[in-house]
């Protein structure tokens, strides 16, 4: 995880901003907060740990990939079953006024809020790929908040709208699978094909030729299901493959080519953008960890 974007946990249960706030927490030996309510929506993305969430007197054991949505004025609190393991999560607070602004743009922004407020549907689960896409969006949003770049306010607003919309779309489509069966089937075939040819020089053009479909249609279906482009997905999967090579004492000079990257400069840029450190720094970390394991044995 990106340690530089982590926030020191605060038990504060009120917003400092009038619109939204978002945090990445990773804590150990943490004391849980007591039951509480607030007057805004809380999106809680569970990454890892041994935790249950109590919402309105009902207990929900959490699994990595769970999204918890708590409407205003609903009592809730987390139970930390094991304080010896890291408790990792994102917390996204969004005010009712800001939600109403989004609803004036389109009702599509409010589906998941309505499900929680009216139908008391508080827990949603995302598979690994979908949750990784959500994580990527959240990290990009947090990174933008911490930077001081031209158009920062506009960029942040766009990213918040995009995140809220994708969460609504994902939950709606999960609950209405028949409507999206054809596109979902194509999406799964795309993922299977890409993963099988990850180390080849695949591109959107070659994928479109293989499936005899337009690049636009393939791009649209893929991004609608995953939230990122085919190019971004290929990069992420290749980087993950590279890290596996490094864990097996691979050499950077060979590994990045074996993982499908065509040149070192683009690989270096993609790796540092994704993980915040250089490939050499990551290799040093792996070598140190392996050395420590040998010493312990």
What is the gist of this entry?
With 297 residues, the chain is an alpha+beta fold.
Which blocks of ≥5 consecutive residues have pLDDT under 50?
none
As a percent range, the share of strand residues is: 15-25%
Biggest β-sheet description: 5 strands, antiparallel
Radius of gyration: 21 Å
Total number of β-strand segments?
A: 8
Question: Roughly what is the average pLDDT, rounded to an integer?
Answer: 87
Question: What's the helical proportion of residues?
Answer: 40-55%
Structural class: alpha+beta
For the largest sheet, list the strands in their spatial order. 1-7-2-5-8
C-alpha end-to-end distance: 27 Å
Give, in order, the helices and strands: EEEEEEEHHEHHHHHHHHH
Number of helices: 11
Overall 3D form: globular
Descriptive account of the structure:
The protein is of the alpha+beta class and 297 residues long. The protein is 52% helix and 16% strand. It contains eleven helices and eight strands. It has helices spanning 96-105, 111-119, 128-146, 152-175, 181-196, 204-211, 215-226, 230-247, 252-258, 264-275, 279-296; strands at 20-27, 40-48, 51-55, 58-61, 66-70, 76-80, 87-95, 123-125. The strands form two sheets. The protein has a five-stranded antiparallel β-sheet with strand order 1-7-2-5-8. A three-stranded antiparallel β-sheet has the order 4-3-6, with no helix packed on it. It starts with 19 loop residues before the first strand and ends with a helix.
